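Lab notebook, design round three. We kept the backbone fixed and only want residue identities now. Task for the bench partner: fill in a sequence for the structure below.
Input structure tokens:
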């Protein structure tokens, strides 16, 4: 297995991210609040590190091209469904690049696979091994059993009925906004170059461990539009350009008490504690955990993302499957911190 690491932005990912921010609320306020909630002085961090991102977003919005399908993808979709659209575009960029004609059957299968994916397998299966939805009846039967909210089912049904139409619209929106992206990138060229050089030297072992659970040859890009995230899709992965600064700031500012509070919040409901107890017995993949605890796979995935972000759970790849396991060193540290504070 080899990891391809690019020291440049991915236009497809960046444009989709910039468009969703353009259709969102007050980006600056939301970012500062999220950082404050995380235990970091959001206003100070923003003023020191995020002015470049602010200019990048503002420049894109100045030049962006509006299209008729924008609201469908960026206004009407829930956050979970936007992630599906983002994944579809990133992982199927061959259609954007004109390598193949849009195939509605393949697109339907990919959508259905994404919705039912239990995060068990480390890579995408062949299309023939994905769900097949050849007609209206099969689509309705699929959605009837899908783990989606009722309003999300209507949205997905529209996608499934006309996947070639909707994704041709999405790819056209990306093409039309490529000049706006290029202007935005050029507007922050100097600070971006410095940040990319710093990121190239940054060794984020936790993120690389996640990347190693991908397919045979995962591709890693830095991202400026979401500068403090880590996203692992099927073959494409993205690391926020400010993750190192965030880590430094967190280490310098967070107290033992704040860290304990954050980790304790991640155990605020019974299901998450049940997950940890189950993983104590043995490492498990997502569907195995869901069945053992009588949870839906999507609920289990949601709980796991919280437990992983708090450092209590990690992943490992074994026999072609992705398994969750306890981060024992961090759990021991959490227990010792509790003892130090309370005993």
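Proposed sequence:
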């Amino acid at each position: 297995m080899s990891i391809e690491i690019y020291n440049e932005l991915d236009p497809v990912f960046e444009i989709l991210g910039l468009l969703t921010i353009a259709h969102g609320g007050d980006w600056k306020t939301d970012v500062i609040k999220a950082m404050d909630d995380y235990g970091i002085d959001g206003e100070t961090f923003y003023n020191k590190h995020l002015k470049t991102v602010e200019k990048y977003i503002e420049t894109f919005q100045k030049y962006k091209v509006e299209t008729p399908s924008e609201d469908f993808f960026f206004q009407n979709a829930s956050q979970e469904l936007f992630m599906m659209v983002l994944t579809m575009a990133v992982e199927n960029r061959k259609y954007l690049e004109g390598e193949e004609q849009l195939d509605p059957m393949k697109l339907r299968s990919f959508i259905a696979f994404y919705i039912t994916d239990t995060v068990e397998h480390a890579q995408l299966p062949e299309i023939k091994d994905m769900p097949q939805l050849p007609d209206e009846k099969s689509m309705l039967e699929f959605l009837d059993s899908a783990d989606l909210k009722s309003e999300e089912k209507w949205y997905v049904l529209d996608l499934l009925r006309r996947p070639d139409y909707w994704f041709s619209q999405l790819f056209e929106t990306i093409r039309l906004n490529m000049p706006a992206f290029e202007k935005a990138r050029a507007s922050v060229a100097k600070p971006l170059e410095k940040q990319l050089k710093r990121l190239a030297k940054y060794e984020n072992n936790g993120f690389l461990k996640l990347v190693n659970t991908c397919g045979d040859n995962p591709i890693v890009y830095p991202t400026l539009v979401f500068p403090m995230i880590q996203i692992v899709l099927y073959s494409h992965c993205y690391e926020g350009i400010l993750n190192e600064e965030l880590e430094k700031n967190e280490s310098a500012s967070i107290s033992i008490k704040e860290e304990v509070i954050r980790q304790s919040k991640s155990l605020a409901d019974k299901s998450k504690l049940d997950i940890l107890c189950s993983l104590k017995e043995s490492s498990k993949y997502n569907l195995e955990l869901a069945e053992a605890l009588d949870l839906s796979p999507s609920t289990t995935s949601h709980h796991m993302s919280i437990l992983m972000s708090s450092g209590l759970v990690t992943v490992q790849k074994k026999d072609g499957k992705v398994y969750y396991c306890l981060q024992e060193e961090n759990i021991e540290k959490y227990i010792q911190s509790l003892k130090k504070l309370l005993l």
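Keep this in mind before ordering anything: The beta strands are 4-5, 219-223, 230-232, 236-240, 313-318, 321-326.
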